Amino acid sequence: MTTKQNSGGLYILMLSIHGLVRGDNLELGRDADIGGQIKYVVELAKKLSQDRRVGRVDLLTRRIIDSKVDAVYSEEEEQIEKNAYIIRIACGPRRYLRKEVLWPYLDSFSDQAVQYISKSGRVPDLIHGHYADAGYVGGQISRLLAVPFLFTGHSLGRVKLLRLQENGMKKADIEERYNITRRIDAEEFALDSAFRVIASTRQEVEEQYQLYEHYDPKRMLVIPPGIDLDIFFPPRRSISRASIRQEIRRFLKNPDKPLIFAMSRADERKNIETLIKAFGENEYLRTHANLLIIAGNRDDIQQKDPGTRRVLSNILYLIDKYDLYGKAAYPKKHDPSDVPEIYRIVAKSRGLFVNPALTEPFGLTLLEAAASGLPLVATEDGGPTEIIRHCQNGELVNPQDKTAMGKAIEKIIKDKEKWATFSRNGIRNVQRYYSWRSHVKSYLKNIKKEVEKKHYNKNVLVKTRSRLLKVDRLIISDIDNTLIGDAAGLDSFLKLLKKSHANVGFGIATGRRLQSAVKILKKSHVQLPDIFITAVGSEINYGKAMIEDRTWRNHLNYFWEPDRVRKALSELNGLKPQAQSEQRRYKISYNLDEDKAPTRRQIVRHLRTHKLRVKVIYSHNKYLDILPIRASKGLAVRYLAIKWGLPPEHILVAGDSGNDEEMLSGDVLGVVVGNYSRELKRLQGRPRIYFAKNKYAKGIIEGIEHYGFFGDITLNEEVDFDHEDE
Which pTM does this prediction carry? Predict the structure, then answer.
């Protein structure tokens, strides 16, 4: 790992987890996960790192070891600029996976990312997550380290759900294919965690983010992406000698006609088929123009995933149906470095660029085309509306109206004066509104105030004197129904713990308050542990003296408004506040009436409508705890791992109920005892979560033996949740 450079400047940690991410020659269009988001994120990392106010940018993504992809994706570190690096984090199976099946591995990614930060010795000044998966991970790390979090959704789950349902897809099928509920929950979590949310357009804010319960217009920030004007520029007088020119021309009978150009991945949402129909059914275009379709790279269509295969096959079918041979070019392959030249070839032919997508969050290709001098015809949905309004260089169309699309293209191709005006406007206005220079300037201006607060506490990375400095591994157990419940099993566990080496620490994590935890432990003849995580993770104390961790206590103040929480929950039926002795500074607790109380999801939604940023913990369907967003047993365990320098795989955690779920997830060694409650059933099959057959403390012993925790720890790293055929 490279030592952090330029420590005087900002250290920005960016997250873009799915897809294939590298510094150059991006494989755009290879599949649905490798598109404009990855291009934007890599460029943003580079451009930010070139600003004198920024010391270093790390872009964290998933490490992939797979013979089907380039070996660069297996490299742990790739320098992409003097002060910018791609850092690849291992999580889940080593092979390349589509984003919809990455969800079970994101807690592992979070743990490994925190380990990377801890080893580097410097807390980031800002974390920026891209898309729902990185929004979830970034939100978790931000809550743990108290670092400002910035979120960019790129495309949103609620919008996708609506579109798919409008197209007749059943909710159950959408869920099975896209894990849409997990995605939407992750987006809500990210919006709840972020101090600012970056959108590309005002339309994206008002029509897309507004669908979310955690939408807050005060936190929304519109910063259009920039493009590199050193790469995308109008054609010069000389004829292009690029090999891609010959590759295009070989398809065409009259290659000097204006080219109607579309470029996207082969995805049904990109709506390439409607453009081919518009061209094929328009007499003027068939006679006076050529069609150019770049839909990613392909060798054997049958080797593509089902969605891509369907689109590519349909493209070939439509070209045959309309007999566009000699009038349509559809190259099998192109290099990413060819793309700027393709735009210039099209501009030289006095053609235009079409984006016919059903929905387009922004439309980076529209800017590239405009900077190259191409007029635009684009979908009237999403980002193109603002791009064309700013640039005054094209026409908006209903993407499902093939006749109108053909007419709009024809109008521009026919009118040479209009073509020239649109071309000039695009070149001028892209420079005015969409340069990287203006993007970076606005970005840094808008984070400056929050970053300067320095409200994270660097003591998270500082160890204090304690027996825990000598500890090499740690067992943390819930008390009720996990550690305690079977006297014989508890006695066996305590004897086993006593026989273990002095380098094994012991802690408890419980919903009980500290005094109650000590009382029940003494009653059960359990030695006082090295660590007390009490009040559902809202309090941490150490050793026999029960010394409070004040750093953790101060960490929890962020957005904590207990009076507003109580008032909001008083509006719901079936919730009865627990005794005053169970209420804590950072914990509000209720008993639930199962017949009258709302579900957890309904409670979360209710609190969101009141703009309350809290953590909701549901246990045994009988108890409800409301905590600050930075509190939980899971976050407390991660905090301790950082503070005491323990890798997650050297921490064994045991639990039985819903308030243990976050603690059990990720790269720690989870043990679910045999008498677990049904809330934990959905964790079955997750990596590093072992479901014991034995109950209570005997289940913990079984877990210790399963992992070989007192010897050479054994891990099962290849659990794979992608059950689709290869």
Answer: 0.84
